[in-house]
Amino acid sequence: MEEVYFTEKTFDKIDFEASPPGKGDYENCRFTNYNFANSDLSGIRFVDCRFKGCNLSLAKLNLTTLRDISFVGCKMLGLHFEHCNEFGLSFSFENCTLKHSSFYKTKLRKTNFINSILHEADFTDCDLTGSVFDKCDLLRAVFEKSVLEKTDFRTSYNFSIDSENNRIKKAKFSMSGAAGLLDKYDIEIGI
Predict the structure, then answer these.
(1) Residues 55-102: pLDDT tens digits?
(2) Could you give the domains of the chain?
(3) Around Cβ 96, how many Cβ atoms within 10 Å?
(4) Which residue in 75, 108, 170, 173 is deepest, having the highest Cβ count within 10 Å?
């Protein structure tokens, strides 16, 4: 199959099963309400692209390039970002649902997660230095051996972070969120 190259193209309300994207390069493209669920995006290169209102749940990301990508209002259940091409891996999330997604051993410095649901997301061995979790629900998200230095959790909630098992120097937490740093001690905090 011949590789494709698209630049500054908009893909709107397309179902992947009916019209799969070709393998190749997509630069500065916009995907709106596109259904990528259960699709194989392996080896495709996305650069400076925006995904809005898309469903990418359970898509395969083997060596997929995601460079300077913004995801807005997307459903992204069970994605394995650790399988992506790590060179230039960079993205932001706003109003997204990333339940059961994995960022295992990825380098995500200065990544923005805004108003997103990250239930049971895996950040094990992840470098999140300088990242921002703004109004995110981190219920049962896993932070283990993660680099969280200068990461901002001040407006996020439902997180549990072991300060002895993660690097959290200069990370930012609200007073109410600080309780998430003490979960392992099984203590009650009240006023």
Answers:
(1) 999 999 999 999 999 999 999 999 999 999 999 999 999 999 999 999
(2) 13-75 (2.160.20.80), 103-191 (2.160.20.80)
(3) 24
(4) 108
